[in-house]
Design a protein that fits this description.
alpha/beta; binds guanosine-5'-diphosphate
């Protein structure tokens, strides 16, 4: 899993400029391919062979002057809990500011590595004056110009030196399937994890000391061990509005990356919003198993027979091409159908591991291509020669054909639909790649 580097500091010191310099267009390229616009304050980057995630905490601060002081301090606290390394940015054009001193104090009192970045050191003179920031009590400082890029290479070198290597990060990862509970604040993530942990059908086991995250629970269900990841937990410490959002984004992103199955919880009475869609799209982009849970079902008045079906349809209409995601209605409060979540997660994990044999796949492929022949392109008939599932967990299918770049998107969707008609892959995003034969 990627390490997280957070950029903290008061407004206008150049945090977002530094973020853009560190993450730059790399992030845009990766994500545009999938048509997903990422939060511009959250990005992945790599340097000297190491991938890591960078967060610009400034993007979440509210504008109101009176809460900025509290907000910046609180962010420093959250960043310490949530990241592996902190970049504390100050502004050499402005000099040492009382808010810098206040943040420095918070950061000095903890163990995580902090790099003091003195920004706007655009010229020799400013470079010299950056020394005044030694008064903040850090042993080293890194003068940079985020705008021109001066000094940022050295900064990146130092960051990579201090972060745990990719191998080390993977070593401590557990083998047991991880089920992450994600969703907007207050939908019932914590309540759901609690309900499951207390359920008679689950046995809670001790997580050995190696696990970094105190909010993971390990349970046994039907002879299988699972790790439940509650993304709410620590979030409750945040008070400033922007920081709550910041916190839940960091948590959600991290949990989605780590998990095998994402349980996306939606408050049945609140409806289905942009934020819910975003989480689902992100889980799909990362090729995770996905289950949607309509929680607080107990609060839905007058349950007519078809109500659940209507809800389900309402959700599917908002996430086209994702009818493969199972939807469950539950109540964490009464315990209604909460066991169904684990049952479904177990199935989704199996589906994600499924491997279709190549002869079987090709027999079927030949049949459905006949049903709807491939179109002509530039006077030539498109042809798919054969297909094979190259991997599972997550499943990837490779199709060999002439002129793959000419394959129309609607035919691609047709293939996915056909694959699902035959092989289901319930709750599992399928990756399809088309290659020149
Ligand atoms: P944030 O509020 O900390 O995210 O700061 P921004 O990144 O939005 O930058 C605030 C202002 O400082 C903008 O006008 C930037 O163009 C400017 N700025 C950022 N980095 C540098 C730099 O290295 N040198 C100079 N001269 N200006 C910079
Ligand atoms: P989180 O922020 O997503 O972790 O949400 P919480 O688990 O803290 O729940 C937020 C609020 O919703 C709390 O007051 C819970 O008691 C309540 N809640 C959670 N699940 C249910 C449910 O199924 N039914 C009802 N009526 N309330 C629920």
């Amino acid at each position: 899993m990627n390490s997280i580097v957070s950029i903290v500091g008061r407004p206008n010191v150049g945090k977002s400029t530094l973020f853009n310099r560190m993450v730059g267009s790399r992030d845009a390229i990766v994500h545009d391919e999938f048509g997903v616009t990422r939060d511009r304050h959250y990005g992945e980057t790599f340097w000297n062979g190491l991938n890591f995630t960078v967060i610009d905490t400034g993007g979440y601060l509210p504008d109101e002057m009176d809460v900025i002081y509290q907000g910046v301090r609180e962010q420093a606290n959250i960043a310490m809990e949530e990241s592996d390394l902190i970049l504390f940015v100050v502004d050499t054009a402005d000099g040492v500011n009382p808010l810098d001193e206040s943040v420095a104090q918070i950061l000095r009192e903890q163990e995580k590595p902090v790099l003091l970045v003195v920004n706007k050191a655009d010229n020799e003179h400013r470079m010299m004056s950056s020394a005044e920031f030694y008064s903040l009590g850090f042993d080293e400082l890194y003068p940079v110009s985020a705008i021109s890029g001066t000094g940022t290479g050295e900064l990146m070198d130092k960051i990579v030196d201090l972060l745990p290597g990719q191998d080390r990060a993977e070593e401590v990862e557990r083998q047991e399937p991880k089920i992450a509970f994600v969703g907007r604040p207050n939908v019932g993530k914590s309540s759901m994890v609690n309900a499951l942990v207390k359920s008679e059908r689950c046995i809670v086991t001790e997580i050995p000391g190696t696990t970094r995250d105190a909010i993971d629970s390990e349970i046994q269900y039907e002879d299988e061990t699972y790790i439940l990841v509650d993304t709410a937990g620590l979030r409750k410490k945040a008070k400033v509005r922007g920081n709550i959002e910041f916190y839940s984004n960091v948590r959600t992103d991290r949990a989605l990356r780590e998990c095998d199955v994402a349980i996306v919880i939606v408050d049945a009475m609140q409806g289905f919003e942009e934020q819910d869609k975003r989480i689902i799209r992100e889980a799909a982009r990362l090729n995770k198993g996905i289950i949607i849970v309509l929680n607080k079902w107990d609060t839905v008045p007058e349950k007519e027979t078809n109500l659940f079906k209507e809800f389900q349809e309402y959700v599917y209409e908002r996430i086209p091409m994702m009818r493969y995601i199972p939807i469950i209605s539950t109540s964490a409060l009464t315990g209604q159908r909460v066991d169904r979540i684990l049952e479904t997660a177990r199935q989704v994990i199996l589906e994600r591991k499924k491997k279709i044999s190549t002869p079987d796949l090709n027999d079927y492929l030949a049949k459905f291509i006949q049903e709807r022949p491939l179109p002509m392109k530039r006077g030539k008939k498109l042809k798919i020669q054969y297909a094979t599932q190259v991997k599972s967990s997550p499943p990837v299918f490779k199709f060999f054909m002439n002129n793959p770049e000419e394959l129309p998107p609607n035919y691609r969707r047709f293939i996915e639909k056909k694959l699902r008609d035959q092989y289901q892959f319930t709750g599992v995003p399928i990756t399809m790649v088309f290659r020149q034969k």
